[in-house]
Design brief:
The structure holds two protein chains of two kinds.
Chain A lengths: L7 H6 L3 E5 L2 E6 L3 H10 L2 E4 L4 E6 L3 H8 L12 E7 L5 E9 L4 E5 L4 H11 L5 E4 L3 E6 L3 H8 L12 E4 L2 E4 L8 E6 L1 H13 L3 E2 L2 H10 L36 H9 L3 E8 L10 E4 L2 E11 L4 E9 L5 E6 L2 E8 L4 E2 L2 E2 L3
Parallel strand pairs in A: 3-13
Antiparallel strand pairs in A: 1-2, 3-9, 4-7, 4-8, 5-6, 6-7, 9-12, 10-11, 11-12, 14-17, 14-19, 15-16, 15-18, 16-17, 18-19, 20-21
Helix pairs in contact in A: 2-7, 5-6
Chain B lengths: L8 E2 L4 E5 L5 E5 L1 H7 L2 E5 L6 E2 L4 E7 L3 E5 L4 E6 L2 H4 L3 H4 L8 E5 L11 H11 L1
Antiparallel strand pairs in B: 1-2, 2-3, 3-9, 4-6, 5-8, 6-7, 8-9
The chains are: A alpha+beta, B alpha+beta.
């Protein structure tokens, strides 16, 4: 039996079409994925992301622990600042991607739903003497879009929200991060269940449109953001996953897990993960073969972009591949082009 | 509950078929199918003149979510395809039994339509799939 988030009944009431996702019953859409996508690009939409895994880590060793288990460095994080990072295995492969917030006492880490067991076990295995790891199930709502913050203010007793991108603020029992997975402005709110149910309803009343996993996928792909398990996994390093920028090599003395293995690849990665646009009719999908002038590659994520009204994706190809390429779709080769993601940000198309 | 017109015939793979007065058979996908697929964004039509047997692949429908094969409900020769879907694939969602038709074929034997499901039997197929 799949798990349900506390908002399950609210999804049914909103007409959510429920599907299994990583052991959870989640709404894939509430009628039209494209309309939900467009609502986020032009107005405001909300996603129930309570299936993601919230982990609080505190104690004297918490910082040293995070400096060991993630490839980015939390040392210089200000209070309430957020950081995107990968957690690596000893071979430099990506165990998960995550966001870590520095809180007044300790840290909060949000890892994926699909990696919950693995990451909780991994954190336990790597834990140090003077620290505590607590899995903290809450409601987590991503409210995204150009009107997201205005509508959040209208729906709550918040007078203003002065949070810079990639920072967070506490509001009573809530943690509000100015983060997201859509390429639009917005927030992710973590809060206790009863308050989360009330917030969902208040946001609905303000006209914030519920959006499902389908729109979440097309929005993140347009924004050029990776999906763990699809665009990257334990066999791919940050350098072949377009997130090499998240690896902090300084200070040299910081011996994070995977550092040694990654050192060799850093200088000359064999592959790259990049954007791809289909130049003909059709739709790019996960696992389609790519032919480039430097050898074969693969589409790791593909979809139809509602904003661009054509097919886009991410592809892992040889590092030296030129832009012109082709993709095999049902036995025939279609013209395609490699481009630097993101495709769309803040409602604007960034690639031709 | 999805719309299942009583006058049409259906395949268990969710195509509908209608015998026209000129002897051709018009084929599309059911309301249940379009709803399950979600927003349709691309149709790959079969080539006119292609000869197919019942249950042969005869095109592909792609939604934002996934690609899905279209099967010929009866055997015959493709004699027309709905070119309007190239620019407005969303018609399949809006009007699956009307302007959202996929192709027409000249059936090898019109009696083959009798082997397809009637509305009642097709409703049971949909109900089983939930």
């Amino acid at each position: 039996m799949a798990d349900r988030t506390p908002l399950y009944e609210a999804h049914i009431a909103a007409g959510g079409k429920m599907v299994d996702f990583a052991g959870w019953v989640m709404p894939v859409n509430y009628g039209s994925q494209i309309e939900e996508h467009t609502a986020v690009r032009t107005d405001a939409g909300m996603f129930d992301v309570s299936h993601m895994t919230i982990v609080d880590i505190d104690g004297p060793d918490a910082e040293a622990f995070l400096r060991k288990v993630i490839a980015n460095d939390v040392t210089n994080l200000a209070e309430y600042q957020a950081l995107y990072s990968a957690a690596l295995n000893a071979h430099g492969g990506i165990l998960d991607d995550l966001i870590v917030y520095r809180l007044p006492k300790g840290f909060r880490v949000v890892v994926n739903a699909s990696t919950r067991e693995k990451m909780l076990d991994w954190f336990d295995a790597q834990s140090m003497t003077n620290m505590r790891i607590e899995h903290k199930p809450q409601i987590m709502l991503a409210v995204q879009g150009p009107e997201a913050i205005n509508k959040l203010l209208a729906a709550t007793d918040l007078a203003a929200l002065n949070i810079k991108p990639f920072f967070a603020a506490a509001h009573g029992d809530w943690l509000i991060g100015r983060t997201g997975y859509t390429g639009e402005d917005g927030v992710e709110v973590m809060l206790p269940v009863d308050q989360g149910l009330a917030l969902w309803q208040s946001l609905l009343n303000e006209g914030v449109r519920p959006a499902g996993l389908g729109a979440r996928d097309t929005l993140r792909l347009e924004a050029g953001l990776n999906l763990y398990g699809q665009d990257m996994n334990e066999t791919t390093s940050p350098y072949v996953s377009n997130i090499g920028w998240t690896v902090a090599w300084e200070p040299v003395a910081r011996g994070f897990i995977g550092r040694h293995a990654l050192q060799a690849e850093r200088a000359a990665p064999m592959e790259k993960l990049t954007g791809i646009i289909l130049e003909e009719k059709g739709v790019l999908r996960h696992d389609q073969s790519v032919e480039t002038d430097a050898g074969p590659g693969v589409v790791t994520s593909g979809t139809y972009s509602p904003t661009m009204q054509r097919s886009i994706g991410l592809a892992r190809v040889p590092a030296k591949a030129g832009d012109d390429c082709s993709v095999e779709i049902r036995g025939s080769l279609k013209r395609a082009r490699l481009v630097k993601p993101p495709f769309v940000r803040k409602g604007k198309i960034l690639v031709n | 509950m999805s719309d299942i017109p009583a006058e049409l015939k259906y395949a268990a793979t969710h195509e509908w078929a209608r015998l026209e007065e000129d002897g051709t058979v018009t084929v599309g996908i059911s309301d249940h199918a379009q709803s399950a697929l979600g927003d349709v964004v691309y149709i790959e039509a079969p080539e006119i003149g292609l000869t197919v047997s019942a249950q042969d692949e005869a095109g592909v429908v792609e939604s934002v979510k996934a690609a899905s094969d279209i099967y010929a409900p009866v055997g015959g020769t493709i004699c027309a395809v709905n070119d309007d879907l190239t620019d407005t694939p969303e018609t399949v969602n809006q009007d699956p039994y009307g302007d959202g038709w996929f192709f027409k074929l000249t059936p090898t034997d019109p009696a083959d339509l009798d082997d397809l499901l009637d509305a009642e039997a097709y409703a049971e197929v949909c109900a089983e799939e939930g």
